[in-house]
Specification:
about 375 residues, HIV-1 Nucleocapsid Protein, 4 strands, two-stranded antiparallel ribbon, about 5% strand, mainly alpha, 11 helices, about 50% helix
Length: about 375
């Protein structure tokens, strides 16, 4: 026979309530543990996602080759760096909280030291490290309001000068960003009027009557006009696709035969007459008679005949010159001796005014 069981004590109401309470406590503890574990897992997952997102943003940011800034280069360099960083941050859709960290990561040298001191001051003043606060402090340091005002004044005084339309338009748009009336919105009509006011006069005369009020259209039209004028200048003096240029007045003559007009005779001293002068001098030289030896073809100072004595021109005796002659001065005669210097005959020219058998304007020569 099986053993007899001990009698079971009766369960009171208090025992029943205590058991129920213990069960509920155990259940609550289990739920709490599960909730804490899930919360911890969610936090870890969030941290991993944030880390992954930060790494992805940093990787995307570095792939854009962001420029670095050392604090030198002047106002223009600071403005270009700020624009480049802001453009990259917008392209990679960088979160607001990471923009300042990525931007300040590109600061080096003096700029890095400046940001270290500025960040400490912002923490002490409980300022938020937002992109707007960073941009405001950066521009106040490296591109202050006074410098931007100077760029705005340069924009108002800008003219084309020696620049072509393309270079003038680029400089115009670059300076217009600093014009204080364009901070909130650009007035395109005012830009067109201001751009036209700085153009050269020949371009103004061609483009102002068109009444263009769109800036890009105005720039393109000015470029077309400038290109047409340049091509027209290059075509002068040649035949090109645009048609022949007008012939020069110097190449035309009244006869229309294309012959050259009458050329004035050159001066006898020019190099073209040097050969004629040499020939003429040679002929005169051949007809000249030496006063020492009586031969032709050379002068007395070039006479090499040592046997010929010096002859006086006054008394016709050898041994002295005429300046040393003591004889009475001889009268000149028509028939000179062989050693005397020949006298050239004079010639008289007259212009005939009476009509004769020859031409009325003929020139007559009379020999004396």
């Amino acid at each position: 026979m099986p053993p007899r069981r001990a009698p079971v004590a009766p369960v009171t109401e208090d025992d029943r309530v205590e058991r129920m309470a213990n069960s509920m406590n155990v259940m609550a503890a289990a739920i709490t543990a599960q909730t804490n574990a899930k919360t911890q897992r969610d936090l870890e997952k969030r941290e991993r996602e944030v880390h992954a997102a930060g790494t992805c943003v940093l990787t995307s940011f570095n792939h854009q080759n962001p420029p670095r800034f050392r604090g030198d280069g002047g106002h223009a360099a600071a403005d270009l760096w700020h624009q480049a960083i802001e453009k990259i941050l917008g392209a990679i859709h960088c979160p607001e909280g990471e923009m300042v960290n990525l931007a300040t990561y590109q600061l080096l040298g003096d700029a890095e030291y400046w940001w270290g001191n500025t960040s400490l001051l912002m923490e002490a003043a409980f300022e938020e490290f937002s992109w707007e606060n960073f941009k405001r402090k950066f521009l106040a340091k490296y591109f202050p309001e006074t410098a931007r005002e100077r760029y705005g004044e340069e924009f108002l005084k800008l003219t084309q000068g020696g620049l072509n339309v393309e270079a003038y338009a680029k400089k115009f748009e670059s300076l217009s960003r600093h014009f204080r009336f364009f901070r909130d919105g650009i007035d395109e009509s005012y830009m067109c009027r201001r751009f036209q006011g700085g153009l050269r006069y020949e371009l103004q005369d061609a483009v102002v009557p068109l009444g263009i009020r769109q800036f890009q259209v105005l720039v393109e039209k000015c470029q077309e006009i400038e290109d047409m004028r340049n091509k027209r200048v290059n075509r002068q003096g040649s035949f090109s696709a645009g048609g022949p240029s007008r012939p020069s007045h110097q190449s035309q003559n009244r006869g229309g035969r294309g012959t050259r007009p009458y050329n004035r005779p050159q001066n006898n001293r020019g190099p073209q007459n040097s050969g004629n002068q040499g020939t003429r001098g040679k002929q005169v030289r051949e007809k000249q008679t030496c006063y020492k030896c009586g031969e032709e073809g050379h002068y007395a100072n070039e006479c090499g005949n040592s046997g010929t004595a010096t002859i006086c021109y006054n008394c016709q005796k050898p041994g002295h010159f005429a300046r040393d002659c003591r004889a009475p001065k001889a009268e000149p005669s028509e028939n000179a001796t062989q050693g005397a210097r020949p006298t050239a005959k004079g010639r008289v020219y007259c212009m005939g005014t009476e009509v004769s058998g020859q031409a009325s304007n003929s020139i007559h020569e009379d020999r004396q």
